[in-house]
Amino acid sequence: MSLFSFCKWMAEWTAQKMLIPIFEFQEGLFPPFTNPAGSIADWLGTDGGITTLAWLYAVNIAFAVGMTNLILVIHLERKIAARIQDRRGPMLSFRSFRELGEDLAGSAPSWKFKENYAGIGILQNLADGIKAIAKELIVPAKADKFLFTMGPIIFISSSVFLLVLFPLSDRFAASSAPAGLMVIMAAFSIAPIGVLTSGWASNNKYSMIGGMRSAAQLMSYEIPLLLSMAGVFLMAGSYDPVVIVEQQQASSWFFGIPIWNFIPQFIGFIVFMICILAEVERVPFDLPEAEAELVEGWTTEYSGIRYMFFLMAEYIRGFAGAAVATILFLGGWAGPWPIPPEIWFLTKVYLIIIFWIFIRWSVPRIRTDQILELGWKKLLPLSLINLLIVIFMVEIYPYFSEIVSLPEVF
Amino acid sequence: MAEMWISMGPQHPMTHGLWTLKVKVDGETIVDADPELGYLHRSVEKMGERRKYFMNTTLTDRLCYASSTTWTHCYVNTVEELMKVEVPQRAKYIRTIMLELQRLASHLMWAGAYMPDLGHITGALYFWRDRELFLNLLEAPSGSRLLYNYIRIGGVKRDLPDGFEAKTERVMKLFEQRLDEYADLFENSKIFRMRTEDVGKFTASQAQNLGITGPNLRGCGTKFDLRKHDAYEIYDEVDWDIQTREAGPGYGDCFSRYMVRIDEMKESVRIIRDCFKKMPAGPTLASQIPVRAQGEAFRRTEDSRGEALMYVVGDGSDRPYRWKIKSPMFTTISACPHYLKGYKVADIPAIMGSIDICIGETDK
């Protein structure tokens, strides 16, 4: 059963059992023509109403799954970073709750937990969220207030949009656009507008330089990124994630073991991984918010939940970037049978994220001119070479193999 | 983008203390720079004139929070010359050991502070983890971890505790292993070299004209170290070499300064080992220490950051008549427009971090 059929079943059930009776009851309370409840009940009974409701459910489920993964990713980052740095990381335990209770009540509470019970440091995220919401939202006196407020909204909304765009498997998908990956990349490239907006509106030199750097970086890395993706699209002949994964699974080179795209398109894979790191602004490429020289870059003037939105959106973008890399090059949700495809997909995504976390905590930051040089002088030619190889494999070799009857290799 | 002034400081992640660096940028390129010092001025020299000679060691400890023993030692050395005190041989060895331990702690503090400047936060925690080991060693004889007040006029406060040599040897062995491990993370790392090589360059003659001393000068290939050239304590009796970078392409940049300090740490370990080997038994404090002094004296010592110079005038009373401190970092920071111009904004923390700023001694 796919996510959508499950949601449709759920929508039918809720509409028939709950929503339509409620609206009909409301309709009975007031005379017709003053109350739209009756027409809503009628619409919910139709196929279109059920489908709309089902999409709503599907999007919400995908969003919930994405946000859960976001919390896990943030926790994972903190824990792995701490282990790399010879620390323990967030170690919030029930014992600290007890101590908090003792502080508040002035005496030891009657309930007892095992001493030193550790392992729920993930609640640190919750504490951070509460802290961020509780803080004052400061708008600088000479800032452009409208744009200053719009910046985080553009950034977080385009990032949350990403969460519902990629499928976890061919059955677990909230969106099934034929141009799925193009839509994802379009959503990715909305973010620079938010960055530039907030950098400019803050009326701060650090913010402005950070925003400019971000815009320059994202624009120059978009091109090799899309070119390295073009090879995959050419091989699959589609922008649809489902088709791309099926193509990877179908292309078997030896003994029936599928060859995922990262082997024939190794150059493209490397280029893509570097570019997506720059796209999601993680450490070797996080110079828009280089805290050493630009304080916090374009987020310098933001406080409270707006700053939290930026942090959250970065992790969402990281998660989405890893998901795109998995779909394009690592065979998506394909994997041996007993483990469900959604778990395979998330496993691959998490492996990429862990790899990124290791990179983040073991390399310094690159300079602006170096990052642009890398993008334009190295990655762009490499992605073009990758594209040429794919064209040879997909178009030229089959064409000549038909004429002179070459063995079928690709 | 038009040219504009950016004010970095007094509170900015790059500054490592309280000072302001005003940079004029054209886009991302630095056109001009203007350092502003004096936020941390505590008038140490004037305060010293109101205190007795032996009281001033508490002030000199507070000159530099990363390297307090070396400053106390510089003052004590000057006053000893003024009072003509003969220091026992064992005290000289203990002083040398403490100075080198302090140099190790100071250089590790610098290395740890330099890594976040380049965006490498893990490096900070690694180096500061090792610094803890040396702070423990400094704590063992002196009893404190930051402001030791261990070196006194006429010797040291007390003898080294039992088992200090074995403990030091253990720490130094571990430290040497770890330095080899870190080599892959830092000096052999491509990105680290991209950030530090050919950045913030100055030549040896430029450095000499600007008054830049210490590891920053040795990073340019100049073989100049006061521990050799104006030897004090027992630096001329132990085996060690001045660490410099070979003159050639890429010398005098941030990377060469980093490497000089790493090599100096290895050299400090060598000095400490040799000191333990040659250390004689005997008293650790001179038997007769005068309270009053007449005349004038100056000494220069090799601080962790460069040439520290102190000048003390005594008028026959128990307090100095005049006390002048020459800080190595004051001249180095003042010269920053010369080595910042032409580089990018992102290079500012890389360059200013590489010269090892300590505002405590700069502003005095």
Automatic annotation (TrEMBL), chain B:
Residues annotated as domain NADH-quinone oxidoreductase subunit D:
117-288, 292-364
Q: Which UniProt keywords apply?
A: Oxidoreductase
Q: List, in alphabetical order, the Gene Ontology terms for molecular function in this entry.
A: NAD binding; oxidoreductase activity, acting on NAD(P)H; quinone binding
Identify the EC number(s): 1.6.5.11
Please give the InterPro entries that the UniProt record associates with this protein: NADH_Q_OxRdtase_suD, NDH1_su_D/H, NiFe-Hase_large
Q: Is Oxidoreductase set as a keyword in this record?
A: yes
Q: Which Pfam families match?
A: Complex1_49kDa
Tell me yes or no: is Oxidoreductase among this UniProt entry's keywords.
yes
- Stored PANTHER family: NADH DEHYDROGENASE [UBIQUINONE] IRON-SULFUR PROTEIN 2, MITOCHONDRIAL, NADH-UBIQUINONE OXIDOREDUCTASE 49 KDA SUBUNIT
Name-wise, this protein is NADH-quinone oxidoreductase subunit D
Q: Which organism is it from?
A: Marine Group III euryarchaeote
Its lineage opens with:
Archaea, Methanobacteriati, Thermoplasmatota, Thermoplasmata, Candidatus Thermoprofundales
